[in-house]
Design a protein that fits this description.
globular, 73% helix, mainly alpha, single chain
C-alpha cells in the first residue's frame, strides 16, 4: 500500500469500526433499532439533529450498558493487536502474542488470586493492581528465558512463552480449587474472557493501556524499525537490542494487565491482526501499529456481536469466539507456508 493510499484505508477502517460499534450497541437480548441507538447516543442533542426522542429505558440500556461495552471492545481489541505486533518485533517470531507468551495468563492469575483468596482489600483498585503484578511477573519470567536462549533459534522463544503460560495457567487452576469455591463462576469469566464488566468508571483503565502503547510506539518507532533488521544492524545504528526488548516486554505486560483486569483472557487477537495488516501497510511501525489498532478494534467488535447472537438470548464468552477464529487462522497460516526444500 502506498503512502497516499494509507489515509483512505484508514478512513475506510474508521467507518467499519463505527459501523460495527453501532451494530454492537443495537444487538442484544433486547434489540434496539439503529435510529433509536443514534437518538440515545445523541442524548439532549437528538432534537437538534432531527432525531426523535426515545424512551428512558432504551436510553439507559444504550448509554449505561451497551455503549461502554462497545468502547471497551474497541480499545481492548486495538490494544491487544498492538501488543502482538510489538512482541512479534521483539522476538522476531510470528507466533508471539500476549496470550501465547504468558502475559495474559500472568495477569489472569493475579486477578484470580484476588477473587479466590485475598478479596478486594484495596477497594476497586485491588483487581487491576493484582493483574498488573501478575502480568509483570510473567513478563520478567519470559524475558529471563528469552535472554538466555536468544541465540538458540525462534523455537526456544515459543517454548519460553508457552512454558510461562502453562505455569500461570496451572497456578490459576490451583487457586480455583484451593480458594473459595463460591468464586468458581467468577473465575470462569477470567479464563474465557468477556466484556460484561464494561462501565463508564473503568473505561479509563483500558484507555490507559492503549495510551501507554501509543505513546511508547510514537517515542520509539525508529528504534522498533531498527530492530526489524536484526541485532547486529540495530547495534550499528546505536541501539541496544536487549534493553529495547526489555522495554517492549514491560510495556506490553502493563498494557495487557490493564486489559485483562477488565475482560479476562482473550487470546489470538494479537497473533492474527499483525499478520492480516502487514501485507497492506508494510512492516514499519508507524503505519503497522495504527493499522493493527484499527483492525484489532474491528475484530473484537465483530467477535462481540457474534458471541451475543450465536446462542441468543444466551451469551458466549468472547474468548471462545476469538480462540476458534485464531485456531483456524493458525491452521491456514501453517498450510500456506511452503515446505522447506
Amino acid at each position: 500500500m502506498t503512502h497516499r493510499a494509507f489515509p483512505f484505508a484508514w478512513l475506510g477502517g474508521s467507518l467499519l469500526v463505527l459501523l460495527l460499534a453501532l451494530t454492537s450497541v443495537a444487538k442484544g437480548s433486547s434489540p434496539v433499532p439503529l435510529r433509536d441507538v443514534l437518538s440515545a447516543v445523541a442524548g439532549p442533542l437528538a432534537p437538534r439533529l432531527g432525531l426523535h426522542p426515545v424512551e428512558v429505558t432504551v436510553q439507559r440500556i444504550v448509554q449505561e450498558l451497551r455503549l461502554p461495552r462497545a468502547l471497551l471492545a474497541a480499545m481492548v481489541g486495538a490494544g491487544l493487536a498492538m501488543v502482538g505486533a510489538l512482541l512479534q518485533t521483539a522476538t522476531r517470531n510470528d507466533l508471539a502474542d500476549p496470550f501465547l507468551f504468558g502475559l495474559s495468563s500472568g495477569a489472569s492469575a493475579g486477578a484470580v488470586a484476588v477473587i479466590t483468596t485475598t478479596g478486594e482489600w484495596l477497594g476497586i483498585w485491588t483487581l487491576p493492581l493484582a493483574a498488573l503484578a501478575g502480568g509483570l511477573l510473567s513478563a520478567l519470567a519470559v524475558l529471563l528465558m528469552v535472554n538466555r536462549s536468544r541465540n538458540e533459534g525462534p523455537e526456544k522463544l515459543v517454548l519460553a512463552g508457552l512454558a510461562t503460560s502453562f505455569v500461570f495457567g496451572a497456578l490459576t487452576h490451583y487457586l480455583v480449587f484451593a480458594g473459595d469455591q463460591r468464586a468458581a463462576h467468577s473465575v470462569l469469566f477470567w479464563s474465557l474472557g468477556g466484556l460484561g464488566l464494561a462501565r463508564w468508571d473503568n473505561l479509563a483503565l483500558a484507555l490507559a493501556g492503549v495510551g501507554l502503547l501509543a505513546l511508547y510506539a510514537a517515542a520509539r518507532r525508529h528504534a522498533l524499525d531498527g530492530l526489524l533488521a536484526g541485532d547486529e544492524t540495530a547495534q550499528s545504528l546505536g541501539l541496544r537490542p536487549d534493553r529495547l526488548r526489555a522495554e517492549i516486554f514491560m510495556v506490553s505486560a502493563m498494557a495487557t494487565a490493564c486489559f485483562v483486569s477488565l475482560t479476562g483472557v482473550i487470546g489470538f487477537v494479537g497473533l492474527m491482526v499483525p499478520h492480516l495488516v502487514r501485507p497492506l501497510c508494510g512492516a514499519l511501525h508507524t503505519r503497522l501499529l495504527a493499522a493493527c489498532a484499527m483492525a484489532g478494534a474491528a475484530l473484537l467488535l465483530a467477535s462481540d456481536i457474534a458471541c451475543r447472537t450465536l446462542l441468543s438470548p444466551q451469551e458466549l464468552p468472547i474468548g471462545i469466539v476469538t480462540a476458534a477464529v485464531g485456531a483456524l487462522f493458525v491452521i491456514a497460516l501453517v498450510l500456506r507456508t511452503p515446505p522447506a526444500p
